Amino acid sequence: MKLKARVIGIGNDYQSDDAAGRIVARRLKTWAPPGTEIFEETGEGTALLEAWRGAEDVFLIDAVQSGAPPGTLHRIDVQVQPLPASLFRHSTHAFGIAEAVELARVLHQLPSRLIIYGIEGERFDAGVGLSPSVEKAVAEVEARLRQEIGTRSSHA
Amino acid sequence: MKKKTIRVDHLARVEGEGALTVTIKDGQVVDAQLRIFEPPRFFEAFLRGRSFTEAADITSRICGICPVAYQMSAVHAMEDACGVQVAGPLRALRRLIYCGEWIESHVLHIYMLHAPDFLGYAGAIEMAKDHADIVQRGLQIKKAGNAIISLMGGRSIHPINVRLGGFFKMPTKRELASLTDRLLWARDAAVETVRWAATLPFPDYEREYEFVALRHPDEYPFNEGRLVSNRGLDLSVREYDEYFEEEQVPHSNALHSKIRGRGGYFVGPMARYNLNFDRLSPLAQETARAAGLGPTCRNPFKSLLIRGVEVVYAFDEALRLIAAYEAPEHPAVPVLPRPAVGYAATEAPRGTLYHRYRIDEQGTILDAKIVPPTSQNQKVMEEDLRRVVEKEIDLPQEKLTWRCEQTIRNYDPCISCSTHFLRLEIRNEMG
C-alpha cells in the first residue's frame, strides 16, 4: 500500500514573504502525484496537529526569520532534531509550528516522517508579493519537493 | 547604589511580539510600560480605495488570529452604512459562527497559553508531559469549535462564507444537526474544564476597573448591543468616537485607547461577564457559581475561569441556535451602497472590536478606523503590572518576572498586527 504524503504550506498571503509556504503548496497542487495531498494552513499550532493527522510523510513549508540572509533554505527532519523555535521569530501565533511539533512529540502524534522546509524571509509587513530572493527560494523548494515526493512515490 | 535588572528577551505564549519594561526604584515601581514598536494603522491604508464588499475578507486575513470577529465587525459596519439590518436565521447563523470562534480562541488560551502559568510549567509541551489527558481534552474541545466554523465558514483555513447581508451558502438544518452530538460532548468537557480550572492556584489580587462591553436586551453579546460600563456609560456604537479616544504615548507606536476625561478601561471576557452575567445561560451561570465565581469578578487572574464559563455558554448557545434553525429563503439580503459612514462593535474573543468605514455612492472605501481589543486594554495591562509588582515586590526576581508575564497573559493580548518582539524587562534601581 502506498504511504500517504501530505504537503502543508503555511503562512499569511497578506504579510509579504510570509506567503512563501502557501505559494509553494499552491504551485504543487496541479502536479501532486496520487497519494499526495496538498494543504494550506495559517500556522496555528493545534490546527497543524489536525492537518498532519493520518499522513505518514509530511512536508511543511513556511517562511522563517532566523537572521540568515533572505532566501536561505533550512531543511529540518524533526525526527532527527528538535525544531528550533528561534526560526519562527516572525510568527504571529503564540502556539505555532515549533510548539505543535514538540507537543506532538510528547503526545506521540508526530507523523513517521516530518520534513520542514524553512524559507528565510525578508519582509513580514502587511502587503502582497514576495521579495526577489524569496521568490527564487520558493522555486527551489518547489523543485526539491517535486524530486523528493516523486522519488518517494516511485519507490512506494 | 545598587542596580539590578531582570530581563526576559522573549515573552512567550502571547499572540505577537512586543516589549515590556518595569522599573523599580528604592522598592517602588516608578514605571510600567508595554511597548509596541510598529504602527498598527496599516489596515486602514490597505482598505482605502477597495470595495465595501471586500473589507470583511481583507481585515480578517491581514490579522488572521480571530477572523470571524473581523468579518463580523466589518459586515455590520457596512450594513449600518447602507441602512440594512440582518435578522432572523441569518442573524442566528452569525451568532453561531461567533460561538465557534470564541470556543477555539478561549480553549487555546486556557489550555495552551495560560494554564501552564498556574501549574508552574514553561508551556503546554512541558504540561503535556505530566498531564497528557488534560491537554488532549483541550485539543478535542477546540476541535469542536473548529467544526462549527468549518461548517459555517466553508472548509478553508479562513472562513470564506461570510458576506454582506448574510452568507454565500446556507447550511441545511440537517448539516447543522450533525454537529449536535459532538457539541453535547464538548459542552460537558467545557463544564469539566471549569471544574478543573477552579482548582488552580489563583493569586490573590483584585482592583477596581471600568469594564466596557456590549449589552443586549436579551442575549449575552456577540454582534449587537449598546456599549455600557460599570461606571455609567451607556451609548450607541455610533457614539463611540465621542466617548473614546486614542492617544499616542512616547514608548509605544500603538495608540492607547481611553475614555475621554477618564482614562483606561477593560474589555474582554471579564468585562462581558461582569456586565452581562444575567444574560448567561442557566448552565453557564451554574458552572460559574460551582467554580466559586459570583456575578462580579475583579481578579484578572481568574479571567481563565471566565473564559471557561464563556466556552460553556458558547456551546450552550450553539446548541440552542442549531435546534431552533430553519433555513431562510435566501442566503443573504441585498446591501446596496450609498455615501455614508457605518459603525459597528462586536465582541471578539479578546473584547470589543470597533470598525468604522466611510464609503461613497459606489461603495468605495474612503476611510476606515479599526480599534482592536488589545489596544483598548493596554492602559489597564500596564496598571495591573505596576500594582502586581508593588504587591509582590518581595518575591525573588525570577518569580516576580514570571508573575509579570502571567499578568500580561491574563489579557490574552494579540499584538501581532503591530509588533515584533515582546521583551520583558524589570529594572530594579536601588539608590
Your description of this structure?
The complex is a heterodimer of chains A (about 160) and B (about 425). Chain A is α/β, with parallel strands linked by helices. Chain A is built from 4 helices and 5 strands. In chain A, β1 (about 5-10), α1 (about 20-30) and β2 (about 35-40) form a beta-alpha-beta unit. In chain A, α1 (about 20-30) packs across α4 (about 130-155). Chain A starts with a strand and ends with a helix. Chain B has a single domain (about 40-375), classed as Cytochrome-c3 Hydrogenase, chain B. Chain B has 14 helices and 14 strands. Chain B starts with a strand and ends with a strand. The interface of A and B includes residues 14 and 93 of A.
Quick rundown:
The complex is a heterodimer of chains A (156) and B (431). By secondary structure, chain A is α/β, with parallel strands linked by helices.
What is the total number of structural domains of chain B? Answer: 1
| Low-pLDDT sequence parts of chain A | none
The secondary-structure class of chain A comes to alpha/beta
Number of strands of chain B: 14
* Euclidean distance between termini CA atoms of chain B: 5 Å
Coarse shape of chain B = globular
The unreliable regions of chain B are 1-11, 417-424
What is the class of chain B in the CATH system?
Mainly Alpha
Overall 3D shape of chain A: globular
CATH architecture grouping of chain A: 3-Layer(aba) Sandwich
Strand content of chain B: 15-25%
CATH superfamily of chain A: HybD-like
